[in-house]
Amino acid sequence: MSDLTVAPHERGVIRLFAMDMRPEEAKFLREPGAADQILGVDGLDPDHIDIFPVSDLEDLGLYGYLTEGCGVSADQLDRDALAAIEGWVMILRSAAFKERPATLKPDSRLHLIGLFAEEATNWTGEAIETESAKPFSGPQATPTNDQPRRIGSAILALVALLVLGGIIWLIL
């Protein structure tokens, strides 16, 4: 698979593009559908595309943005190469493709810097073997007695009838 081919149901892949264009053109790519045109694909989800000038990252830099903000492991990144990138960049996440396959045909002003994998959460674990983890090991709830609630409801209904009767007696 090439870096510009997106497999169906791809997850956790981040594509970093450097953008060789004027700031006005780069800002325009934030508009709905504009990134689709420059990447040569249709139907991208703009919520999963970040377009910004590297200078906005200040001390964090692209290295920090990718490791801390996107969950890319440090062993995938070249800190010096990322520090050398200036101007505007585009971060394109797999989720932007909505689990559909695609082949990117980027405009000549976009340059693929790298393809990175987000660290996935490890959901595996061992079985819990404590007594409290076993089914029905907690205290069993005893059936509640509804009798006090019924008496309270009956008294409330009687008081309401007496009040209503008193109002009717006053009116007549």
Topology:
Blueprint: E1 5-6, E2 13-19, H1 23-28, H2 34-39, E3 49-53, H3 61-69, H4 79-83, E4 88-93, E5 102-103, E6 110-117, H5 147-171
Antiparallel strand pairs: 1-5, 2-4, 2-6, 3-4
Query: Which runs of at least 5 residues are low in confidence (pLDDT < 50)?
Result: none
Q: Which structural class should the secondary elements be placed in? A: alpha+beta
What does the radius of gyration come to? 31 Å
Helix content: 25-40%
Query: Can you write the helix and strand succession as a string?
Result: EEHHEHHEEEH
* Strand numbers in spatial order across the main sheet: 3-4-2-6
Beta-strand percentage range = 15-25%
Characterize the main sheet: 4 strands, antiparallel
Roughly how many Å apart are the termini? 91 Å
Anisotropy-based shape: elongated
Average pLDDT, rounded to a whole number, is 89
Total helices: the number is: 5
Say how many strands there are.
Answer: 6
In short:
The chain has 172 residues and is an alpha+beta fold. Helices cover 30% and strands 17% of the residues.
Q: What would you say this structure looks like, in words?
A:
With 172 residues, the chain is α+β, with helices and mostly antiparallel strands. The protein has a domain at 5-117. It is 30% helix and 17% strand. It has helices at residues 23-28, 34-39, 61-69, 79-83, 147-171, and strands at residues 5-6, 13-19, 49-53, 88-93, 102-103, 110-117. A four-stranded antiparallel beta sheet has the order 3-4-2-6. A two-stranded antiparallel sheet has the order 1-5. It is elongated. The mean pLDDT is 89.
